[in-house]
């Protein structure tokens, strides 16, 4: 555990924020898909909520890491009250990471809502290696489409919203109709599952799971993901993941 300083905590819209946090030299080695855990009560003066929350590393800026979060409950609401120079308790780096060593590949990045969070850092790494990248990004409304300025280097961007307020009206999975060599997916479980059905069979698929995590180090067994291998395997999302082979995940056993 460490004490980190808030560099900024910017409101994107009523539901989404981006926060920059001072980081150790070890944390600055973050790879796309890694996450950190934050204690979300201000200055740790109270113990509600008790458990830390997990957040993907969105980007690295100088000596700081950036996270993007959506206000969903008490924990993330607590983050919105933090201001520049406030101190927050952190732990990490945690988890595994996306394959970012690809060269000259056709790549799909598929995100739903806050599932966009781990991808700015991934795109920053992939666009340096002559990859062709399509971004598919869906949300319920225009307020769920954020961070587009971080994806200027991708080749194509496809946007949908369920209410039609930005991009095309519908689900983002309805517009996946090209063949790729590898896809990176993060978002609601039903969206990730249907993305796999829409991608060509030869496409490798890496998914970033968003299971609830309590400890972040595999002790509490609260974030189990079932994988179908030679036999059924129980994997810990925080320790064995959060990145998994999407074709092996038993999606029917997960909460939506």
Element layout with pairings:
Blueprint lengths: L1 E10 L4 E7 L12 E4 L14 E4 L2 E3 L2 E7 L3 H6 L7 E8 L11 E7 L6 H8 L5 E8 L16 E6 L6 E2 L12 E5 L2 H10 L5 E5 L15 E5 L3 E5 L6 E3 L11
Parallel strand pairs: 8-9, 8-12, 9-10, 10-11, 12-13
Antiparallel strand pairs: 1-2, 1-7, 2-6, 3-4, 3-7, 5-6, 13-16, 14-15
Descriptive report:
The protein is mainly beta. The chain has 3 domains: 93 residues, Translation factors (Elongation Factor Tu (Ef-tu), domain 3); 111 residues, Rossmann fold (3-Layer(aba) Sandwich); 48 residues, Dihydroorotate dehydrogenase B (pyrk subunit), domain 3, CATH 2.10.240. 9% of the residues lie in helices and 35% in strands. Helix 3 links the parallel strand 12 and strand 13. It is globular and about 50 Å long.
- By helix and strand content, what is the structural category? mainly beta
DSSP, total strands: 16
Q: In the CATH hierarchy, what is the superfamily of the largest domain?
A: Nucleotide-binding domain of ferredoxin-NADP reductase (FNR) module
* Low-pLDDT windows of residues: 43-47
Biggest beta-sheet profile: 7 strands, antiparallel
Order of helices and strands: EEEEEEHEEHEEEEHEEEE
Shape: globular
Across the major sheet, the strand order is 4-3-7-1-2-6-5
Roughly how many Å is the radius of gyration?
18 Å
Average per-residue pLDDT, rounded, comes to: 88
Proportion of beta-strand residues: 25-35%
Q: CA-to-CA gap between the ends?
A: 31 Å
